[in-house]
Write a structure and sequence with these properties.
The complex is a heterodimer of chains A (about 375) and B (about 375). Chain A has about 375 residues and is of the alpha/beta class. Chain A has 15 helices and eight strands. In chain A, helix 4 packs parallel to helix 5, helix 7 packs antiparallel against helix 8 and helix 13 crosses helix 14. Chain B has a domain of about 140 residues: Rossmann fold. In chain B, strands 2-1-3-4 form a four-stranded parallel beta sheet, with helices on both faces. In chain B, strands 6-5-7-8 form a four-stranded parallel beta sheet, with helices on both faces. The longest helix of chain B has 24 residues. The chains are: A alpha/beta (about 375), B alpha/beta (about 375). Chains A and B meet through helix 5, strand 4, helix 6 and helix 14 of A and helix 5, helix 6, helix 14, helix 15 and helix 16 of B.
């Protein structure tokens, strides 16, 4: 039977509780730019927040109207008890809103562990030393919360499991890129999102099974596109109008640069056993990083162009959350570069979840343009 | 010549013979000259979202239009941004560097949620400043000379210490200097930190303020109430402060001049470590942009309490999430801990399209009436 990662996503709170029942801790996380390997080696399950659709009534009096729905969703779920089982919250400095949110949560719930983590944008000896010290300090904090003390052996094992996971996700992307008809885009995104919220060793087992079951489908004709930006969890799990519209237009997603997809930290950690694993983990986290704030637009453009050429994409659809400053700044130069290289783009502003009417008109027009 | 954010670090650049130009600062002049709207629209016509920071929109508009309140800014040789400060302070400069085809240096910094700076945070901040010194050497061919840097940091420390004395005098009733004057005074702290001129200017202001204080002379003819103002001023409409003054309401203390660039000194710090890199690193670590809400909150409480404020105005600034997120928590703390009520309004500091003076007067007028009743 084909594994459906949507079921895992729907069941994520129960699964997280299971980890706690075995004596582990669960850390609510925002952004992939966090030392998940270190957390896991301390028996702390990093659980990336998946965005709920709203409305965000609890957040209304606390957050100004001009912040993104991601921050509203995290605030709402953190305060209303959805994530009441968490042992703490760790966010990465990937935008000014999320660090502001960490401040609000630390003031509103001073009894809870709230940690802001900065992975330096530069990669020089000073940044490396800082990050290594920061990682050691973080391990001590996790131990005080009830985590397992950091050991080289456990960290090495965690790195190994995480690297295997990256490899499996890469395989899925390559497979889909070569033959996008073989696996639906929702399935790919569900698989990656599931890896954000469950133990990686378990996810690896499921991924191996999933990959084995992907059929050798015949070549599927259609318009090949890339998705970039952000898709909310409910758009994937509960069914977004985007995917049926794409399907109706004979559009095939060959790759993505979504925050919940390929932008998840997929560069493997160096596995040379002769080097301190903490050094290698620090090195992996240093810049330039796969987040718009901490890497130049040209880097992102280069990655999208490479994937577009590898998998024969004809156009790119950007899904841009309202009030996401780093993405909004990237968008004009990014679309310009892609257009200059012959790749048309469509930008869709999203707020909460995707609305079918406006979406259909714009996507259909874009696909028509690509097909001519 | 370097473009930098308003955070600088001017001390290091001046020490290395680099002239500093701050487009962000130029935007404030543009606003005062009522020219910002056209430049914001220029940027928006080039697909820059109207949801983005109005400093960035106006600054980019000036760049593309090659114009400004006193003409176009000169072209930079390199640009220094700050990825740690806010989103525009990284991405705006990327666009600018691309436009001028010049190198971009981004300073990163630790963000201390609770204000507890650990030794390795300070070491990294120093390392970032040293990395910048190497970058400047590489791109200008000018060597870093420690004595020159030491002198610039000393002058900056003196300017900040004098500025702190002026701020202290604002505690006097009536206030001998207030926000309307101080937001202009700030020019020297931002753009001239590290130069003799900034020290001379603040000494002059300090002397004048002392004299006014000695004469019991306030900036408002009849000081009826003292306010705390939170966020960046409305640069295109500083008359809002005049309007308050005409009602006898003086902004005795404000977040912007006290907590943002001056946070380290406001918290009691001084440049006395003996190491200019350490001193400058500490200044950077305590910019409001680099501290979390628990610190922001205690600073607001202290400012309102020590400067004897009876009410507070919180400007919810669509152009600055860094300063605006967490305002409700600060308003609540002022009310619960000090009994100080707050008024809040939404606009943008550099886009006049976001603001209606009539509506503002009506609403603030009501707030002042309520405040006056409560004070009786």
């Amino acid at each position: 039977m084909q594994i459906d990662f949507k079921d895992v996503l729907k069941d994520r709170h129960r699964r997280a509780m299971q980890h706690k029942e075995t004596g582990g801790l669960v850390m609510g996380c925002y952004s992939a730019l966090l030392p998940e390997e270190l957390m896991w080696s301390c028996n702390v399950l990093p659980l990336q927040f998946l965005m709920s659709p709203g409305p965000y009534d609890e957040a209304l009096p606390h957050l100004p109207p001009y912040v993104c729905d991601c921050s509203r969703s995290i605030f709402e779920d953190h305060i209303n008890g959805t994530y009441g089982y968490l042992d703490g919250l760790m966010v990465s400095h990937v935008c000014e809103t999320i660090r502001g949110l960490a401040g609000i949560l630390s003031v509103r719930r001073p009894d809870r562990y709230v940690r802001l983590f900065t992975a330096p944008a530069a990669n020089d000896p000073g940044a490396r030393r800082h990050l290594k010290t920061e990682l050691s300090g973080l391990a001590e904090e996790l131990e005080q919360l009830g985590g397992v003390p950091l050991s080289g052996e456990r960290l090495e094992a965690a790195i190994s499991v995480y690297n295997e996971n990256r490899d499996l996700v890469e395989k899925l992307y390559r497979l889909r890129g070569r033959n996008p008809g073989a696996v639906e885009p929702e399935q790919v995104l569900s698989a990656v999102m599931a890896s954000h919220i469950m133990p990686k060793d378990e996810h690896n087992r499921m991924m191996r099974e999933f990959l084995k079951a992907v059929p050798e489908a015949p070549h599927t004709p259609g318009i090949r596109i890339i998705l970039s930006g952000l898709l909310f969890e409910n758009d994937v799990v509960l069914g977004s109008p985007l995917f049926p519209i794409l399907k109706a237009c004979h559009a095939l997603v060959v790759w993505d640069d979504l925050a919940s997809g390929m932008r998840y930290r997929l560069k493997p950690v160096d596995h040379s056993p002769e080097r301190d694993p903490l050094d290698r983990l620090a090195e992996n986290l240093l810049g330039p990083q796969p987040t718009p704030l901490r890497s130049p637009t040209e880097r992102k453009a280069g990655q999208i162009l490479k994937a577009a050429r590898t998998y024969g994409a004809q156009g790119v659809i950007f899904l841009v959350p309202k009030y996401c400053d780093p993405m909004l700044f990237d968008l004009p130069p990014l679309t310009r570069i892609l257009k200059e290289e012959g790749f048309p783009t469509l930008s869709l502003e999203i707020s909460g979840s995707l609305l079918e009417g406006a979406l259909r008109t714009r996507v259909e027009a874009f696909m028509e343009m690509l097909s001519t | 010549m370097a473009y930098t954010t308003a955070l600088g670090p001017t001390e290091l650049l001046y020490a290395m013979g680099v002239e500093v130009c701050m487009p962000e600062n130029y935007v404030t002049i543009c606003c005062a000259k009522q020219m910002a709207k056209a430049f914001c629209e220029e940027a928006e016509s080039r697909s820059i979202s109207p949801d983005l920071c109005s400093y960035a929109r106006c600054g980019l508009g000036m760049m593309w239009a090659q114009d400004g309140p006193m003409g176009a800014l000169p072209d930079p040789d390199f640009i220094v941004g700050a990825v740690s400060a806010c989103d525009p302070h990284a991405k705006w400069w990327e666009i600018t560097a691309r436009h001028y085809h010049v190198p971009l240096f981004l300073i990163d910094a630790p963000y201390t949620l609770h204000g507890e700076v650990k030794p390795h945070d300070e070491t990294w901040m120093m390392s970032e400043l040293k990395r910048l010194a190497r970058f400047v050497e590489e791109h200008t061919g000018r060597p870093f000379i420690e004595d020159d840097f030491r002198e610039c940091v000393r002058l900056s420390g003196e300017a900040h210490a004098t500025f702190a004395e002026i701020q202290e005098l604002r505690k006097d009733v009536p206030a001998p200097r207030a926000m309307r004057e101080m937001v202009g005074d700030l020019f020297y702290l931002i753009t001239q930190a590290g130069r003799r001129e900034s020290v001379d200017y603040y000494r002059m202001v300090l002397d004048q303020t002392r004299e006014r204080a000695a004469r019991g002379e306030g900036v408002v003819r009849e000081e009826k109430m003292r306010l705390y103002f939170h966020n960046i001023p409305l640069w295109f409409n500083l008359q809002t402060l005049d309007w308050l003054a005409a009602k006898g309401a003086v902004v005795a203390m404000d977040f912007y001049t006290n907590h943002v660039w001056h946070g380290f000194f406001f918290d009691g710090g001084r440049f006395d470590s003996g190491d200019p890199f350490r001193d400058l690193a500490r200044k950077w670590l305590f910019f409001d942009n680099h501290v979390g809400l628990p610190v922001k909150l205690s600073r607001s409480l202290r400012s309102a309490r020590e400067w004897g404020c009876q009410g507070a105005i919180f400007f919810s600034n669509r152009s600055c999430k860094v300063y605006s997120i967490g305002q409700p928590e600060q308003m609540r703390a002022l009310k619960e801990e000090l009994g100080i009520p707050s008024f809040t309004f939404e606009a943008e500091m550099a886009d006049p399209r976001s603001f209606s003076m009539d509506r503002w007067e009506e609403r603030v007028g009501l707030f002042l009436e309520i405040l006056a009743d409560a004070m009786r």
